[in-house]
Design goal:
Elements: H1 11-23, H2 31-44, H3 59-62, E1 85-90, E2 93-97, E3 103-107, H4 108-113, H5 128-136, E4 140-145, E5 150-159, E6 166-167, E7 170-175, E8 180-189, E9 196-205, E10 210-218, E11 224-233, E12 238-245, E13 250-259, E14 265-274, E15 279-288, E16 294-303, E17 308-317, E18 325-334, E19 340-349, E20 355-363, H6 367-374, H7 380-396, H8 402-421
Parallel strand pairs: 1-5, 4-7, 5-8, 6-9, 7-9, 8-10, 9-11, 10-12, 11-13, 12-14, 13-15, 14-16, 15-17, 16-18, 17-19, 18-20
Antiparallel strand pairs: 1-2, 3-4
Length: 422
């Protein structure tokens, strides 16, 4: 008789199993979805480098312990965005916010108790990190934009903890037919504390809906941040989603987009600035499941010190998804000899009438351009700052709101100025 296979679990995996057994009876609603998600985690464990999509970010090795759930805290000062209805979150818990015409905001727990099912925005994708959020998320919001309405919302997350803690918010956004939404999520956190974030945002776009989503990562310098955006696109829907990232010690931002209606469009972008020993992984899967879809992906990464950047992008074109147009690019600048970047763009095409391409570049600043600027009296560090700001500006300039563009450009400028005087 063959010996049974024994699964060796690390302390974090064991802690998750014990925690779910202790908490599952008190978790609000969505019991079946939670149980199914946790069963998938229990069968697979935390993703390691043996899993292709996590090859460069070994979560199992990086997460050796599980911090206790964060307690409520008084939110600290956060960015203010003029003209946006603001909703504050303290350690992942919704603190209420401004009203906006045509918008309803409901606590996640209430929506779950009423029968809302999490995970629909994942399409055909399955991810263990998202499964953990599905299993454990207690708080967050469900945002519904009525058909034909327009809204501008700011989700201000303050991760203000005094000790290591885990934070697992979930945001589900349902955008009605012909509606439009500009959604900005800002994450600011305490430096010097190794807190853990696992955040999921689901975007469900109806027919002809339009969403511009921007996530700004200013997390604490010791934080481990796992963030996921899962979107489904209805017929003729348009999505723009972007992350601008400066914070965190270990970060992975993943985007899953599934086309459910024809003639939909998606633009997925990222601007990342890394220094010291930071590690940042941008991973995306774009699933063209129906014909006549268009996708554009552009990621720019600047790496300094001993930091390491990762880009993994996959465009899937299903057999019947003819007339698909997909273009993907990742470009990285390395500002030091110890900086590193891993690029892995992929195409999986099962249809024959498509236009798809991908590309990736990685290199240092152009010495001829630097010489030109220095010859006109600029110190080298200032010349480098101008070139880096222009490099990242091609992503940031796609933001439609002028005041937001200026704020993001200011953060890039501040990051480079700090480097110039360091």
């Amino acid at each position: 008789m063959a010996n049974p296979v024994v699964i060796m679990r690390n302390p974090a995996e064991t802690a998750f199993i014990e925690r779910f057994a202790a908490e599952k009876a008190s978790l609000p609603g969505a019991a079946q979805a939670r149980a199914e998600a946790f069963a998938r985690f229990e069968a697979r464990g935390l993703p390691s480098k043996r899993i292709e999509s996590y090859h460069y970010t070994d979560v199992r090795n990086l997460m050796r312990s599980v911090a206790p759930a964060a307690k409520d805290a008084v939110a600290g000062e956060t960015l203010k965005l003029e003209g946006f209805a603001r909703h504050g979150f303290s350690n992942g818990r919704w603190q209420g916010g401004d009203s906006s015409a045509g918008v309803t905001v409901q606590p996640l727990a209430d929506a779950y108790r009423e029968g809302l099912t999490p995970g629909l925005g994942m399409g055909q994708a399955s991810d263990v990190v998202v499964d953990l959020n599905t299993a454990f998320a207690r708080d967050g919001v469900v945002i519904r934009i009525a058909a034909g309405r327009h809204a501008k919302l700011h989700l201000a997350f303050s991760e203000n903890v005094g000790a290591a803690a885990s934070i697992l918010p979930r945001v589900i956004v349902e955008v009605g037919e012909g509606a439009s939404l500009m959604l900005v999520a800002t994450h600011e956190g305490t430096d010097g504390i190794a807190y853990q974030v696992n955040e999921v945002v689901e975007l469900r776009l109806g027919r002809q809906a339009k969403v511009e989503h921007i996530r700004l990562n200013l997390s604490g310098d010791k934080a481990m941040v796992l963030s996921s955006v899962a979107a489904t696109l209805g017929e003729e829907a348009e999505l723009q989603t972007m992350q601008v990232s400066l914070g965190g010690e270990v970060c992975r931002h993943q985007v899953f987009v599934t086309y459910q209606g024809e003639n939909a469009k998606a633009a997925i972008r990222g601007a990342t600035m890394l220094k010291g020993n930071q590690h940042h992984d941008s991973t995306l899967v774009v699933d063209h499941a129906v014909p006549h879809g268009e996708s554009r992906e552009l990621f720019r990464t600047v790496v300094d010190g001993s930091a390491h950047g990762v880009f993994q992008g996959k465009i899937i074109v299903r057999p019947h998804a003819q007339k698909t147009d997909g273009q993907m690019a990742s470009n990285a600048l390395l500002l030091s000899d110890d900086a590193g970047m891993s690029n892995k763009p992929e195409l999986e095409i099962f249809a024959d009438d498509v236009v798809c391409a991908h590309g990736a570049t990685c290199g240092s600043l152009d010495e001829n351009q630097l010489f030109y600027l220095q010859a006109r009296g600029l110190p080298r560090r200032i010349a480098e700052a101008l070139l880096v700001e222009a490099f990242l500006g091609e992503v940031i300039d796609t933001v439609s709101e002028e005041s937001l563009r200026e704020m993001l450009a200011g953060l890039v400028s501040d990051w480079m100025q700090a480097r110039a005087i360091s």
